[in-house]
Design goal:
4 strands, mainly alpha, about 75% helix, two-stranded antiparallel sheet, 5 helices, about 180 residues, rod-shaped, single chain, two-stranded antiparallel ribbon
């Protein structure tokens, strides 16, 4: 029995560690410094592998950016319509003002839903950026961070799902407020 990192390990494990070849050490092995197990720094091979793992979240970021573009465009249209109705309601009769106020209330609800959708999708994008950064930090420091990465990714997906549900509700509110008058 030997003591490594204050842990008692069987002789066979210790011998296995001592017999590691330089090639095995380059692919993410360990070094022994003064009898302590020390993780090796990331090599080009491991960094290349981390880059491959980071590609999928980066594509996801591109998709979220497209969704954010749509949401911001919709918010701009809602705000423009609200301002136009606000201007019209100042210069119109009482019955038209009531209709304008009703539409303005609907627009206000839509703007609030779009705001939530934008916020949640942005949070999802930020969490995915943290996932990518955590991949590289874990690789370069030789630290196992798979639990953290999984948790961050799950929270990011929940935020994205919530943002999309908010967007869906806003679309429902927008289409529900369309009234076709008789000709």
């Amino acid at each position: 029995m030997f003591v490594l990192n204050r842990v008692i390990v069987p002789t066979s494990v210790y011998d296995l560690i001592l017999r590691q070849t330089p090639a095995a050490m380059e692919t993410g092995g360990i070094d022994i410094v003064e009898g302590l197990l020390v993780p090796q720094a990331a090599t080009v091979t491991t960094v290349a592998h981390v880059i491959q793992l980071a590609v999928a979240p980066v594509f996801l970021l591109t998709g979220i950016a497209a969704i954010l573009g749509v949401l911001i465009n919709r918010l701009g249209r809602v705000v423009d319509r609200f301002r136009a109705l606000e201007h019209v309601s100042l210069n119109t009769a009482a019955e038209e003002t009531a209709a304008s106020r009703t539409e303005m209330l609907t627009l206000s609800r839509r703007a609030r839903l779009i705001h939530w959708a934008i916020s949640l999708c942005t949070i999802a994008a930020l969490l995915i950026c943290i996932v990518v950064a955590t991949l590289f930090i874990g690789s370069s420091m030789g630290v196992e961070m798979s639990g953290t990465i999984a948790a961050l990714f799950i929270v990011a997906m929940l935020a994205l799902i919530s943002g999309l549900l908010s967007f869906l509700r806003e679309i429902s509110l927008a289409t529900g407020s369309i009234h076709v008058g008789s000709r």
